Amino acid sequence: MADYKQTLARPPNVPRSVLIVIDQFEEILTVDPLAREAKEEFFTQLGELLADTSVWALFALREDYLAQLDPYARLIPTHLRSRYRLDLLRRDMAEQAITGPAAPRTWSETALKKVLDDLGSEGLYYEPMQLQVVCRGLWEQMPDSATSVELRDVTTFGDVTRALSKYYADTMQRIARGDLRRERKLRGWIGEQLISPNRIRTQVLRGAKKTLELANEQIEQIVDAHLIRADQRGDAVWYELAHDRLIRPVRADNDRWAQEHLHPVQLQAELWARRGKPSALLLSGKALRAAEAWEKQQARTVDPESEFLAASRAARVARGTAARPWWVVGILAVLVLVGGGWSYRKQVKAEEKRLHDAAVADAATVKAGEEKARAEKEALARRDQERLVAILEATDDPTIQVALLREVEDPVNLRRWMQLATTARQTPIARAVLPQDSGEAAKPGISPDGRYLLAVDTGEIHLWLAEQRRRVRLSEPANQATHSIYAFSPDSSLVAVSRNVRLDVWRTDGTSRPIWTTKQKTTISTVAFPLTENASY
């Protein structure tokens, strides 16, 4: 690498320094995990190149691969110590990403809130790709003369679902390169394999060359478009839709594309497969004959229409209505007349009606079950979201947020909760430094809810408020206070401190003045609050 840099022809009058940018740097570790010698050679050459102070390098990789770089860090001059973590976009960051590049054009508060609320379905973080898609679509359609983005502009040009649907449609068309069969397969793979009937994201395991009948090369193109993400766990790779906010645009555009490009037989076949293949949706009579005529005109049919037509034919045979030569019909007619055929036909029709009614009932039961499951899923998601919002509003301390999360049952979607736990893990723990004078002192105490820390010495009383990360001095220095005891109320709202014969009661909200004071004739040896319910302090 160093030799190549020396021989590399460079245009005149350009800076001497060189910046090398390598994206997806983790692939040096994942392409061939056992090629240790090759990796050693690569990092050795890379270190020799970077020993030149005019050469800089920027590596972008997923943070879960940082530990695997440790064996090779010694070969790089800086030992890879200079690191910057690209965190997920919070709401304030997303606001800056929207308004910053727009200058000098401004955004009204209502327009900005509309876009952020529409894109913030996950509650905590925003996807940069979605911000870019929506804002770019809005920018391209707004008149050049507009100096600000108003709510009417967002409503007219910046609808989130419409923008994401267009981006999805353009991506599918580009990957399919005009081949309708290929585009149908791509859309069906995303719509059926990555989105469940209950409209939630599902994951699929990557195969060796194909993943559920779709070539991995095509899947990688969808990953590059940021519509789906690849999650590597050990030696396995799992694919899933990049964001819950894409479910609605994908389904809506798949339905639009199907109405524009698919034959009614294909639409009916997809509906039949999606509803659990009920017999009530099968074709019969003229509709089946028309479908068979359409089938003969096709070079080939694919699932689900081939299976759908086969099932329709089987149902026709079962009903005894398959087309027959004229002489067979004549013989059967004679037999029916002789043997009381009118009664038989009446029984057949009654049986057909019974089967049809049963199929309709089955389809209704399936649909009701799907609706119930979706409603339960949405209710659980709303419950988790409300809990998450309440916890975030209650405190800004990630450590306390995670502690509160542990008190509730497991959420339906662990991803958002794990993001919060990751933030807490990376946040330094606040330290409470409390003074301690000489003399006899009580041991520091923690309130029952764990939010307050009390330290009492011979001079004064200090209370540490964990939520606000600040210290409050509750009392002035006291002379000759040689004996101190204290007690928190069961709900942690009050704290009582006795020093010799005096007893003071404070609120734990940081008010530095006692709400009640008393003196006894002898030294107070015990301080306690009543533990009975609804007792007055």
What composes the largest sheet?
Answer: 4 strands, antiparallel
Strand order of the biggest β-sheet: 10-11-12-13
If you compute it from the alpha carbons, what radius of gyration comes out, rounded to the nearest whole angstrom? 35 Å
User: Unreliable segments (pLDDT under 50, ≥5 consecutive)?
Assistant: 326-338, 434-441
Please state roughly what percent of the residues sit in beta strands, choosing from under 5%, 5-15%, 15-25%, 25-35%, 35-45% or over 45%. 5-15%
Number of discrete helical segments: 19
The end-to-end span amounts to: 77 Å
Short structural description:
By secondary structure, the protein is an alpha+beta fold.
Task: Please describe what this structure looks like.
With 537 residues, this protein is α+β, with helices and mostly antiparallel strands. The protein is built from 19 helices and 17 strands. Mean pLDDT is 77; it is low at 326-338 and 434-441.
List the helices and strands and how they pair.
Layout: H1 2-7, E1 18-22, H2 27-30, H3 36-50, E2 55-59, H4 70-73, H5 91-99, E3 106-107, H6 109-119, H7 128-141, E4 148-149, H8 151-157, H9 160-176, H10 180-193, E5 204-205, E6 210-211, E7 214-215, H11 216-224, E8 228-233, E9 236-241, H12 247-261, H13 264-274, H14 285-297, H15 305-319, H16 326-338, H17 341-394, H18 398-405, H19 414-426, E10 445-446, E11 452-456, E12 461-465, E13 470-473, E14 484-488, E15 494-499, E16 502-507, E17 516-519
Parallel strand pairs: 1-2, 3-4
Antiparallel strand pairs: 5-9, 6-7, 8-9, 10-11, 11-12, 12-13, 14-15, 15-16, 16-17
